[in-house]
User: Which sequence fits this backbone?
């Protein structure tokens, strides 16, 4: 923004400079009242150009770093050109210094009022620039907040989808665990039934063995001991 304002002042300065650079030659060829009029005109235009240069210096101080080198170079060239014009004017009109001083004193009230008005305008412009910059900063902050909110919403949506998938996986795992528990219960029942059958078979086998032993003992007794 500062560079744009600087370019506007550049155009104003160029128009003033184009008018000022013609005055020394005209003053050299003129005499009397005509020369005095040219001196007054030069002094007034020089004052206006000086105000423009001061405004450009303020814009230079507030400009972004990427613009400052080019703006500073232009401003130094303008100062050099103004110094050259002043020397040319002193050469063309030997009484330029004293005349300009007299003109300055006679127009002191007017220039003072103009300077005050210019200062007021510059203050208002500075406040406007500050307000605009604040609005731009606020807009950028809002844009960053909107981008952050959009990113947060996107992340939240992804998290919700991921949690939904995990919930489905947990439901499937729970169902498998329930089925596994039911299978284990059936297995325990089968094992208990098998255990009972095994104990029954053992008891029957024991009874059969005891009966066989009794029969064997009876046969041995009858054959060898009972005569």
Assistant:
């Amino acid at each position: 923004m500062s560079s744009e304002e600087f370019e506007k002042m550049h155009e104003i300065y160029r128009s003033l400079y184009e008018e000022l650079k013609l005055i020394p030659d005209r003053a050299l060829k003129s005499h009397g009242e005509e020369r005095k009029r040219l001196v007054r005109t030069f002094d007034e235009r020089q004052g206006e150009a000086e105000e423009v240069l001061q405004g450009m210096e303020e814009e230079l101080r507030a400009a972004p770093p990427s613009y400052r080198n080019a703006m500073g170079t232009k401003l130094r060239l303008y100062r050099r050109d103004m110094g050259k014009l002043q020397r040319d004017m002193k050469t063309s009109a030997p009484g330029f210094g004293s005349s300009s001083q007299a003109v300055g004193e006679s127009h002191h009230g007017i220039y003072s009022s103009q300077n005050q008005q210019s200062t007021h305008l510059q203050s208002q412009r500075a406040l406007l620039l500050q307000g605009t910059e604040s609005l731009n900063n606020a807009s950028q902050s809002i844009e960053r907040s909107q981008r952050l909110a959009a990113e947060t919403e996107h992340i939240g949506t992804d998290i919700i989808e991921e949690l939904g998938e995990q919930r489905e996986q947990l439901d499937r795992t729970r169902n498998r665990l329930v089925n596994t528990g039911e299978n284990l219960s059936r297995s325990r029942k089968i094992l208990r039934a098998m255990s009972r059958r095994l104990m029954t078979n053992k008891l029957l086998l024991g009874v059969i063995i005891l009966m066989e032993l009794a029969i064997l003992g009876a046969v041995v007794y009858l054959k060898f001991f009972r005569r």
User: Anything to note?
Assistant: Helices lie at 2-20, 23-29, 32-62, 65-92, 96-106, 108-225.
